[in-house]
Design goal:
Largest sheet: 6 strands, parallel
Distance between the termini: 58 Å
Order of helices and strands: EHEHEHHEHEHEHEHHEHHHHHHHH
Radius of gyration: 24 Å
Helix content: 55-70%
Length: 342
Protein backbone atom coordinates (compact mmCIF):
# COMPACT_ATOMS: atom_id res chain seq x y z
CA UNK A 1 0.00 0.00 0.00
CA UNK A 2 1.36 3.40 -1.00
CA UNK A 3 0.54 6.29 1.32
CA UNK A 4 -0.01 9.64 -0.38
CA UNK A 5 2.04 12.58 0.98
CA UNK A 6 -1.06 14.47 2.15
CA UNK A 7 -2.11 11.43 4.21
CA UNK A 8 1.29 10.60 5.71
CA UNK A 9 1.03 12.51 9.00
CA UNK A 10 -2.43 11.17 9.89
CA UNK A 11 -1.45 7.65 8.86
CA UNK A 12 1.68 7.61 11.04
CA UNK A 13 -0.24 9.01 14.00
CA UNK A 14 -2.78 6.17 13.79
CA UNK A 15 -1.65 3.21 11.65
CA UNK A 16 -4.19 0.39 10.96
CA UNK A 17 -4.09 -2.29 13.64
CA UNK A 18 -3.75 -5.16 11.16
CA UNK A 19 -0.70 -3.66 9.47
CA UNK A 20 2.36 -5.92 9.69
CA UNK A 21 5.05 -3.49 8.54
CA UNK A 22 5.63 0.09 7.40
CA UNK A 23 8.51 1.34 5.27
CA UNK A 24 9.43 4.97 5.97
CA UNK A 25 11.92 6.17 3.37
CA UNK A 26 13.17 9.23 1.50
CA UNK A 27 15.90 11.86 1.18
CA UNK A 28 14.89 13.72 4.36
CA UNK A 29 16.48 11.59 7.06
CA UNK A 30 15.11 13.74 9.87
CA UNK A 31 11.55 13.36 8.63
CA UNK A 32 12.09 9.59 8.22
CA UNK A 33 13.13 9.38 11.88
CA UNK A 34 10.27 11.65 13.03
CA UNK A 35 7.58 9.63 11.27
CA UNK A 36 9.08 6.32 12.38
CA UNK A 37 8.93 7.60 15.97
CA UNK A 38 5.32 8.65 15.46
CA UNK A 39 4.46 5.12 14.30
CA UNK A 40 6.25 3.66 17.32
CA UNK A 41 4.41 5.99 19.73
CA UNK A 42 1.05 5.04 18.22
CA UNK A 43 1.64 1.41 19.22
CA UNK A 44 4.06 1.67 22.15
CA UNK A 45 3.75 5.04 23.94
CA UNK A 46 6.71 4.37 26.25
CA UNK A 47 9.92 4.77 24.22
CA UNK A 48 11.91 3.00 26.97
CA UNK A 49 9.76 -0.13 27.26
CA UNK A 50 12.28 -2.98 26.84
CA UNK A 51 9.58 -5.65 26.56
CA UNK A 52 7.58 -4.12 23.72
CA UNK A 53 10.40 -2.57 21.70
CA UNK A 54 13.22 -4.19 19.75
CA UNK A 55 15.78 -2.70 17.37
CA UNK A 56 17.71 -4.55 14.69
CA UNK A 57 20.05 -3.37 11.94
CA UNK A 58 20.18 -4.23 8.28
CA UNK A 59 23.55 -5.94 8.77
CA UNK A 60 22.13 -8.12 11.53
CA UNK A 61 19.28 -9.23 9.27
CA UNK A 62 21.65 -10.02 6.42
CA UNK A 63 23.68 -12.32 8.65
CA UNK A 64 20.63 -13.78 10.41
CA UNK A 65 17.45 -13.44 8.24
CA UNK A 66 15.41 -15.60 10.65
CA UNK A 67 15.66 -12.92 13.31
CA UNK A 68 12.90 -10.87 11.65
CA UNK A 69 10.32 -13.62 12.14
CA UNK A 70 11.65 -14.44 15.61
CA UNK A 71 11.23 -10.85 16.79
CA UNK A 72 7.86 -10.41 15.06
CA UNK A 73 6.27 -13.41 16.77
CA UNK A 74 7.84 -12.86 20.21
CA UNK A 75 5.36 -12.03 22.96
CA UNK A 76 5.81 -9.06 25.28
CA UNK A 77 6.14 -9.69 29.00
CA UNK A 78 2.97 -8.22 30.48
CA UNK A 79 1.13 -8.19 27.15
CA UNK A 80 0.65 -5.57 24.48
CA UNK A 81 1.65 -5.27 20.85
CA UNK A 82 5.35 -4.98 20.11
CA UNK A 83 7.23 -2.72 17.67
CA UNK A 84 10.31 -3.91 15.78
CA UNK A 85 12.45 -1.04 14.44
CA UNK A 86 14.87 -1.59 11.59
CA UNK A 87 17.26 1.16 10.48
CA UNK A 88 19.49 1.47 7.44
CA UNK A 89 17.43 -0.83 5.21
CA UNK A 90 18.02 -1.07 1.47
CA UNK A 91 16.98 -3.01 -1.60
CA UNK A 92 19.13 -5.95 -0.52
CA UNK A 93 16.38 -6.80 1.97
CA UNK A 94 13.57 -6.76 -0.61
CA UNK A 95 13.32 -10.53 -1.01
CA UNK A 96 13.37 -11.09 2.76
CA UNK A 97 10.42 -8.73 3.26
CA UNK A 98 8.51 -10.17 0.31
CA UNK A 99 8.66 -13.55 2.02
CA UNK A 100 7.85 -12.12 5.45
CA UNK A 101 4.84 -10.12 4.23
CA UNK A 102 3.44 -13.07 2.29
CA UNK A 103 3.00 -14.93 5.60
CA UNK A 104 3.79 -12.72 8.64
CA UNK A 105 3.91 -14.24 12.11
CA UNK A 106 2.77 -12.57 15.32
CA UNK A 107 1.08 -9.20 15.67
CA UNK A 108 4.12 -6.91 15.98
CA UNK A 109 4.46 -3.80 13.83
CA UNK A 110 7.77 -3.73 11.95
CA UNK A 111 8.89 -0.14 11.26
CA UNK A 112 11.59 0.03 8.59
CA UNK A 113 13.69 3.19 8.05
CA UNK A 114 15.50 3.73 4.74
CA UNK A 115 17.02 6.47 2.64
CA UNK A 116 15.98 7.42 -0.87
CA UNK A 117 14.84 4.33 -2.79
CA UNK A 118 13.97 3.55 -6.40
CA UNK A 119 10.45 2.34 -7.17
CA UNK A 120 11.58 -1.27 -7.49
CA UNK A 121 13.07 -3.50 -4.80
CA UNK A 122 12.15 -2.74 -1.18
CA UNK A 123 9.61 -0.06 -2.06
CA UNK A 124 7.78 -2.41 -4.41
CA UNK A 125 7.65 -5.13 -1.75
CA UNK A 126 5.83 -2.79 0.66
CA UNK A 127 3.65 -0.95 -1.86
CA UNK A 128 2.32 -4.16 -3.41
CA UNK A 129 1.51 -5.88 -0.08
CA UNK A 130 -1.96 -5.48 1.43
CA UNK A 131 -0.65 -5.79 4.98
CA UNK A 132 2.18 -3.25 4.58
CA UNK A 133 2.61 0.40 3.66
CA UNK A 134 5.31 2.68 2.25
CA UNK A 135 5.55 6.31 3.42
CA UNK A 136 7.77 8.68 1.42
CA UNK A 137 9.60 11.51 3.23
CA UNK A 138 10.59 14.32 0.91
CA UNK A 139 12.34 17.51 1.97
CA UNK A 140 10.16 20.35 3.18
CA UNK A 141 9.91 23.19 0.67
CA UNK A 142 7.65 25.95 -0.56
CA UNK A 143 4.47 26.69 1.36
CA UNK A 144 4.75 23.39 3.26
CA UNK A 145 8.06 24.53 4.77
CA UNK A 146 6.67 27.97 5.59
CA UNK A 147 3.70 26.36 7.30
CA UNK A 148 6.02 24.13 9.36
CA UNK A 149 8.05 27.18 10.47
CA UNK A 150 4.94 29.15 11.45
CA UNK A 151 3.44 26.21 13.35
CA UNK A 152 6.65 25.53 15.27
CA UNK A 153 7.08 29.18 16.28
CA UNK A 154 3.38 29.73 16.99
CA UNK A 155 3.47 26.79 19.40
CA UNK A 156 5.97 28.84 21.42
CA UNK A 157 3.76 31.98 21.19
CA UNK A 158 6.09 33.56 18.65
CA UNK A 159 5.12 35.39 15.48
CA UNK A 160 7.41 35.66 12.46
CA UNK A 161 7.85 38.66 10.19
CA UNK A 162 7.33 38.03 6.44
CA UNK A 163 10.94 38.79 5.45
CA UNK A 164 12.23 36.64 8.33
CA UNK A 165 9.96 33.81 7.18
CA UNK A 166 11.41 34.08 3.65
CA UNK A 167 14.91 34.00 5.09
CA UNK A 168 14.20 30.97 7.29
CA UNK A 169 12.58 29.13 4.37
CA UNK A 170 15.72 29.74 2.28
CA UNK A 171 17.98 28.34 5.01
CA UNK A 172 15.92 25.40 6.31
CA UNK A 173 14.10 22.39 4.90
CA UNK A 174 16.92 20.01 3.98
CA UNK A 175 16.27 17.81 7.00
CA UNK A 176 13.16 17.94 9.25
CA UNK A 177 15.11 17.18 12.42
CA UNK A 178 17.69 19.91 11.75
CA UNK A 179 14.92 22.34 10.85
CA UNK A 180 13.25 21.79 14.23
CA UNK A 181 16.57 22.11 16.07
CA UNK A 182 17.26 25.45 14.36
CA UNK A 183 13.75 26.68 15.21
CA UNK A 184 14.23 25.57 18.82
CA UNK A 185 17.37 27.74 18.91
CA UNK A 186 15.25 30.68 17.78
CA UNK A 187 12.69 30.01 20.52
CA UNK A 188 15.41 29.93 23.17
CA UNK A 189 17.01 33.09 21.80
CA UNK A 190 13.80 35.13 21.74
CA UNK A 191 12.44 33.74 24.98
CA UNK A 192 8.90 33.03 26.10
CA UNK A 193 7.45 36.55 25.85
CA UNK A 194 3.88 36.31 24.58
CA UNK A 195 3.36 37.34 20.94
CA UNK A 196 7.03 38.24 20.50
CA UNK A 197 8.06 38.51 16.86
CA UNK A 198 11.00 36.86 15.14
CA UNK A 199 12.29 39.60 12.83
CA UNK A 200 14.98 39.51 10.14
CA UNK A 201 17.78 40.56 12.46
CA UNK A 202 17.01 37.77 14.93
CA UNK A 203 16.57 35.15 12.21
CA UNK A 204 19.92 36.02 10.60
CA UNK A 205 21.66 36.09 13.96
CA UNK A 206 20.50 32.62 15.00
CA UNK A 207 19.74 30.45 11.96
CA UNK A 208 22.03 29.41 9.15
CA UNK A 209 24.45 26.51 9.35
CA UNK A 210 28.12 26.91 8.55
CA UNK A 211 27.79 25.04 5.24
CA UNK A 212 25.18 27.56 4.04
CA UNK A 213 27.37 30.48 5.07
CA UNK A 214 30.31 28.89 3.28
CA UNK A 215 28.24 28.57 0.09
CA UNK A 216 27.19 32.22 0.31
CA UNK A 217 30.80 33.31 0.74
CA UNK A 218 31.96 31.06 -2.09
CA UNK A 219 29.48 32.23 -4.74
CA UNK A 220 30.10 35.87 -3.82
CA UNK A 221 33.85 35.31 -4.27
CA UNK A 222 33.22 33.64 -7.64
CA UNK A 223 31.02 36.52 -8.79
CA UNK A 224 33.59 39.06 -7.66
CA UNK A 225 36.49 37.27 -9.37
CA UNK A 226 38.28 36.92 -6.02
CA UNK A 227 40.25 33.75 -6.70
CA UNK A 228 42.09 33.52 -3.38
CA UNK A 229 38.83 33.80 -1.40
CA UNK A 230 37.06 31.38 -3.74
CA UNK A 231 39.76 28.75 -3.26
CA UNK A 232 39.69 29.25 0.52
CA UNK A 233 35.90 28.90 0.65
CA UNK A 234 36.01 25.91 -1.68
CA UNK A 235 38.48 24.14 0.61
CA UNK A 236 36.19 24.88 3.55
CA UNK A 237 33.17 23.55 1.66
CA UNK A 238 34.92 20.24 0.95
CA UNK A 239 35.91 19.99 4.64
CA UNK A 240 32.26 20.50 5.65
CA UNK A 241 31.14 17.71 3.33
CA UNK A 242 29.26 19.85 0.80
CA UNK A 243 28.41 17.79 -2.30
CA UNK A 244 29.71 18.90 -5.72
CA UNK A 245 26.18 19.19 -7.14
CA UNK A 246 25.23 21.44 -4.20
CA UNK A 247 28.14 23.74 -5.01
CA UNK A 248 27.16 23.94 -8.67
CA UNK A 249 23.52 24.67 -7.90
CA UNK A 250 24.44 27.37 -5.38
CA UNK A 251 26.58 29.05 -8.03
CA UNK A 252 23.77 28.71 -10.60
CA UNK A 253 21.25 30.30 -8.20
CA UNK A 254 23.65 33.20 -7.65
CA UNK A 255 24.05 33.75 -11.40
CA UNK A 256 20.27 33.60 -11.89
CA UNK A 257 19.79 36.25 -9.19
CA UNK A 258 22.40 38.47 -10.83
CA UNK A 259 20.49 38.05 -14.12
CA UNK A 260 17.24 39.12 -12.44
CA UNK A 261 18.93 42.08 -10.79
CA UNK A 262 20.65 43.27 -13.97
CA UNK A 263 17.25 43.25 -15.72
CA UNK A 264 15.64 45.26 -12.92
CA UNK A 265 18.51 47.75 -12.90
CA UNK A 266 18.31 48.12 -16.68
CA UNK A 267 14.58 48.87 -16.28
CA UNK A 268 15.38 51.80 -13.98
CA UNK A 269 15.27 50.32 -10.47
CA UNK A 270 18.03 51.54 -8.18
CA UNK A 271 20.56 48.70 -7.56
CA UNK A 272 20.19 48.68 -3.76
CA UNK A 273 16.40 48.76 -4.02
CA UNK A 274 16.42 45.89 -6.54
CA UNK A 275 18.53 43.79 -4.16
CA UNK A 276 16.15 44.43 -1.26
CA UNK A 277 13.24 43.13 -3.33
CA UNK A 278 14.84 39.75 -3.92
CA UNK A 279 13.18 36.70 -2.37
CA UNK A 280 14.60 34.89 -0.49
CA UNK A 281 16.29 38.03 0.86
CA UNK A 282 20.00 38.72 0.58
CA UNK A 283 21.84 39.04 3.89
CA UNK A 284 22.11 42.77 4.54
CA UNK A 285 25.91 42.70 4.84
CA UNK A 286 26.13 41.22 1.30
CA UNK A 287 23.61 43.48 -0.44
CA UNK A 288 26.09 46.06 -1.74
CA UNK A 289 28.42 43.34 -3.08
CA UNK A 290 25.56 41.60 -4.88
CA UNK A 291 24.38 44.90 -6.38
CA UNK A 292 27.92 45.63 -7.63
CA UNK A 293 28.15 42.22 -9.28
CA UNK A 294 24.77 42.68 -10.98
CA UNK A 295 26.05 45.89 -12.54
CA UNK A 296 29.29 44.32 -13.76
CA UNK A 297 28.08 40.97 -15.17
CA UNK A 298 26.55 41.26 -18.65
CA UNK A 299 23.58 39.09 -19.64
CA UNK A 300 25.77 37.34 -22.23
CA UNK A 301 28.41 36.43 -19.66
CA UNK A 302 25.76 35.29 -17.17
CA UNK A 303 24.23 33.08 -19.86
CA UNK A 304 27.64 31.55 -20.55
CA UNK A 305 28.21 30.93 -16.82
CA UNK A 306 24.84 29.21 -16.39
CA UNK A 307 25.47 27.03 -19.43
CA UNK A 308 28.87 25.95 -18.07
CA UNK A 309 27.35 25.12 -14.68
CA UNK A 310 24.55 23.04 -16.23
CA UNK A 311 27.01 21.20 -18.47
CA UNK A 312 29.24 20.44 -15.49
CA UNK A 313 26.33 19.18 -13.39
CA UNK A 314 25.37 16.79 -16.19
CA UNK A 315 28.99 15.61 -16.43
CA UNK A 316 29.14 15.05 -12.65
CA UNK A 317 26.13 12.74 -12.82
CA UNK A 318 27.78 10.35 -15.25
CA UNK A 319 28.96 7.09 -13.75
CA UNK A 320 32.55 7.23 -12.55
CA UNK A 321 32.94 10.97 -13.18
CA UNK A 322 35.37 12.85 -10.85
CA UNK A 323 32.63 15.16 -9.59
CA UNK A 324 34.82 17.04 -7.09
CA UNK A 325 37.40 17.91 -9.72
CA UNK A 326 34.80 18.90 -12.32
CA UNK A 327 32.98 21.20 -9.89
CA UNK A 328 36.20 22.79 -8.68
CA UNK A 329 37.42 23.36 -12.24
CA UNK A 330 34.27 25.17 -13.41
CA UNK A 331 34.11 27.38 -10.30
CA UNK A 332 37.74 28.41 -10.79
CA UNK A 333 36.97 29.05 -14.47
CA UNK A 334 34.01 31.30 -13.62
CA UNK A 335 36.07 33.18 -11.04
CA UNK A 336 38.90 33.71 -13.50
CA UNK A 337 36.49 35.14 -16.11
CA UNK A 338 34.50 37.35 -13.73
CA UNK A 339 34.30 41.01 -14.90
CA UNK A 340 35.69 42.36 -11.62
CA UNK A 341 38.53 39.83 -11.43
CA UNK A 342 40.98 40.44 -8.58
Amino acid sequence: MKIQPREAEAFCAKPPEKLAAVLVYGPDGGLVRERAEKLRAAVVPDADDPFRLAEITADELKSDPARLRDEAQAMAFGGGRRVIKLRGAGDALAKLFQEFLSEPLGDALVVVEAGDLASRGLRKAFESAKNAAAVACYRDEGEGLRSLIRQHLNAANLQVAPDALDYLASRLGGDRRLTRLELDKLVLYVGKAENATVDMEVAQAVVGDSAERTLDDLVLAVGAGDLSSALRDLTRAWAEGVAPITLLRAAARHMQRLHLLSGAIAAGTAPNEAVKRLRPPVFWKQQSAVAAQARSWSSERLGWALTRLLETEAACKRSGAPADLLAERVLVELTARAPRRR
